[in-house]
């Protein structure tokens, strides 16, 4: 198994009721359980039996077998095979305090051109890894502006003197002297690679994902077994996932900002929010 999921039962319940505009008390009434039990679930203190989980799934419009698997920690996505495209992905597990964040180096195999996808709050680790691999990043691609994804921008800017790409609707993180603004569907060149920009807002107003061959770097839009927190728009995020990401071929790899990598097919089968399997 490739590691624990980013979200537990409590996260899924909270995000689900947010989508309905419900309080904990609203969910308790709908599901016929006590508000204190909902609170304990969302604090990761209590996992109820399967009959309660099935009822919670029903009232929240979640896929019950997938919710049970998340709650009981019996599922995680299969390990990802390397993308057969002409590039290499280096995943860095960085930390902002005690909170783990995924950042990525993408390297064109033919030219060794390199881009950083999200900077995290620990740019020193990115610089160290790039030096070990004899790489000189020439682009910084930001999925969104939250500190755990863009907090290392200033040091990378001064070290590599390279531009940073971000959606114009996203707040500007500090640190870059050369912002470039994205268009949905545009292609960014990296050596011989074509990087397609997919607008996936909802977690933030200007959230984007980057598609290279059969891989998508999706920031905090979707996690294995869950979805990101809809700070900007719950319906917008749900639509971004269902209309932009899960319409891609099942073998498409999804590299999120937190938790293990997954595939479109895995999420269509096992994600409580999106599974339609029976």
Question: What is the SS-derived class?
Answer: alpha/beta
- Written as H for each helix and E for each strand, in order along the chain, the element string is HHHHHEEEHEHHEEEEEEEEHEEH
Number of strands: 14
CATH architecture title of the largest domain: 4-Layer Sandwich
Number of helices: 10
Q: Report the portion of residues in β strands.
A: 15-25%
> What strand order characterises the main sheet?
1-2-3-4-5-6
| CATH fold node name of the largest domain | Metallo-beta-lactamase, Chain A
Envelope shape: elongated
Major sheet characteristics: 6 strands, mixed
The residue fraction in helices comes out at 25-40%
Pick out its properties.
six-stranded mixed sheet; 434 Repressor (Amino-terminal Domain); 2 domains; 278 residues; Metallo-beta-lactamase, Chain A
Report on the architecture of this protein.
- The protein has 278 residues and is α/β, with parallel strands linked by helices.
- The protein folds into 2 domains: 9-72, lambda repressor-like DNA-binding domains (434 Repressor (Amino-terminal Domain)), CATH 1.10.260.40; 87-270, Ribonuclease Z/Hydroxyacylglutathione hydrolase-like (Metallo-beta-lactamase, Chain A).
- 32% of the residues lie in helices and 24% in strands.
- It contains 10 helices and 14 strands.
- A 6-stranded mixed β-sheet has the order 1-2-3-4-5-6, with helices on one face.
- The chain is elongated and about 60 Å long.
Short description:
This protein is an alpha/beta fold and 278 residues long.
Topology:
Blueprint lengths: L8 H12 L3 H8 L3 H8 L7 H11 L3 H9 L14 E10 L2 E10 L5 E4 L5 H10 L4 E5 L5 H4 L2 H8 L3 E3 L12 E3 L5 E4 L2 E7 L8 E5 L2 E5 L2 E2 L2 E2 L6 H12 L7 E4 L5 E2 H7 L8
Parallel strand pairs: 3-4, 4-5, 5-6, 10-13
Antiparallel strand pairs: 1-2, 2-3, 7-8, 8-9, 9-10, 11-12, 13-14
Helix pairs in contact: 1-3, 2-3, 4-5, 6-8
């Amino acid at each position: 198994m490739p590691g624990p999921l980013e979200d537990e039962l409590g996260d899924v319940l909270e995000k689900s009721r947010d989508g309905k505009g419900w309080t904990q008390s609203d969910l308790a009434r709908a599901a016929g359980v006590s508000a204190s039990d909902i609170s304990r679930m969302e604090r990761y203190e209590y996992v109820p039996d399967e009959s309660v989980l099935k009822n919670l799934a029903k009232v929240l419009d979640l896929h019950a077998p997938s919710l049970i698997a998340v709650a009981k920690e019996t599922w995680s996505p299969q390990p990802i095979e390397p993308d057969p495209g002409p590039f290499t992905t280096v995943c860095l597990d960085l930390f902002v305090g005690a909170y783990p964040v995924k950042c990525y180096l993408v390297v064109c195999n033919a030219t060794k051109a390199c881009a950083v996808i999200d900077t995290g709050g620990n740019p020193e680790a990115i610089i160290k890894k790039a030096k070990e691999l004899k790489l000189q990043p020439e682009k910084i691609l930001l999925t969104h502006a939250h500190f755990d994804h863009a907090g290392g921008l200033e040091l990378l800017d001064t070290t590599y003197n390279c531009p940073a790409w971000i959606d114009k609707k996203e707040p500007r993180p500090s640190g870059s002297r050369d912002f470039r603004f994205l268009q949905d569907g545009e292609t960014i060149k990296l050596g011989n690679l074509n990087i397609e920009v997919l607008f996936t807002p909802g977690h933030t107003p200007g959230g984007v994902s980057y598609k290279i061959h059969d891989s998508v770097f999706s920031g905090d839009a979707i996690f294995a077994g869950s979805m990101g927190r809809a700070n900007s728009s719950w319906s917008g995020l749900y639509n971004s996932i269902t209309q932009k990401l899960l319409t891609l071929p099942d073998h498409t790899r999804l590299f999120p900002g937190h938790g293990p990598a997954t595939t479109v097919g895995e999420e269509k089968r096992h994600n409580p929010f999106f599974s339609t399997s029976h």
